[in-house]
Structure to design on (302 residues):
């Protein structure tokens, strides 16, 4: 098994183009296999043996290790080192759902005010908080949608375009939204997008994968936000898997609108929701609900 892991690493893994962070995680797992299974013959690793090994991991770790072992045994079968992919025959488990905590205004402002947060990301956070738009719409929002003279900005939320009646908004900008939009418009970087940045390097394959060399992809926005959040130490008291992401900014914004006594219908339309129930889901969870006592009788007679 040790020889198989080494061949897998040398002949297959290096050509996959994984990010450095992902490679480190994979190599950590491979080292564990060397330690745990290295002296075993491949032919002795049947379904039962692999299943019992995987059962030693927690639910989410089980899923990740199973996925990697499937790749290793697929490589072994392709090289004639194994008759079949025994890992693929083990039980599939569903990863436990990650429960994200909600943002607080203080926590989010720590990220915005931090010197470690890039300027373009600060604008994206403020734009999301004031406009209540989704991540994908934030990064694809064009400067051409802005009319500063009439103080409006247009958006057609992408998620609603599959509805029977797609939603198109023309938003009258309040002071907070207008300020961040104006900053985006004044940026010295020539870009058609409100949210944009100047990449440190312009590799041809990276440029070809985007609409414009200055554009921000949704995943890049999420990843950079997570880095900035942790660098600002805004939520160090929350476990890494539960810290709020960029997506939860929208929920905080909806809650803040509610606290400022905006009608639910107003917030619902701004979020592009088809009904008020979804809007309420986003607003819940920012403060602990008070205990509500329900009076009941206990009249059981012996």
């Amino acid at each position: 098994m040790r020889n198989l892991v080494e061949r897998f690493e040398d002949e297959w893994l290096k050509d996959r183009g994984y990010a450095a962070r992902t490679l480190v995680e994979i190599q950590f797992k491979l080292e564990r296999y060397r330690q745990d299974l290295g002296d075993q013959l491949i032919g002795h690793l049947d379904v039962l043996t692999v299943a019992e090994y995987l059962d030693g991991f927690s639910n989410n770790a089980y899923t990740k290790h199973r996925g990697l072992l499937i790749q290793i045994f697929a490589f072994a079968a392709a090289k004639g080192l194994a008759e079949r992919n025994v890992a693929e025959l083990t039980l599939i488990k569903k990863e436990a759902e990650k429960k994200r905590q909600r943002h607080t205004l203080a926590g989010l402002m720590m990220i915005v005010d931090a010197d470690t947060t890039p300027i373009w990301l600060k604008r994206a956070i403020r734009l999301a908080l004031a406009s209540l738009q989704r991540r994908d719409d934030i990064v694809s929002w064009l400067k051409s949608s802005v009319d500063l003279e009439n103080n409006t900005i247009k958006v057609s939320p992408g998620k609603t375009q599959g509805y029977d009646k797609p939603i198109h908004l023309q938003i009258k900008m309040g002071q907070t939204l207008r300020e961040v939009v104006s900053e985006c418009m004044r940026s010295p970087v020539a870009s058609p997008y409100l949210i944009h940045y100047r990449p440190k390097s312009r590799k041809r394959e990276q440029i070809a994968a985007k609409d414009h060399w200055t554009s921000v992809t949704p995943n890049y926005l999420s990843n950079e936000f997570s880095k900035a959040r942790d660098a600002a130490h805004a939520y160090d008291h929350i476990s890494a898997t539960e810290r709020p992401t960029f997506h939860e900014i929208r929920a905080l914004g909806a809650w803040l609108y509610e606290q400022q006594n905006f009608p639910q219908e107003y917030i619902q339309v701004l979020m592009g929701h088809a009904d008020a129930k979804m809007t309420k889901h986003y607003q819940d969870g920012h403060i602990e609900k008070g205990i509500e006592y329900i009076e009941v009788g206990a009249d059981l007679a012996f």
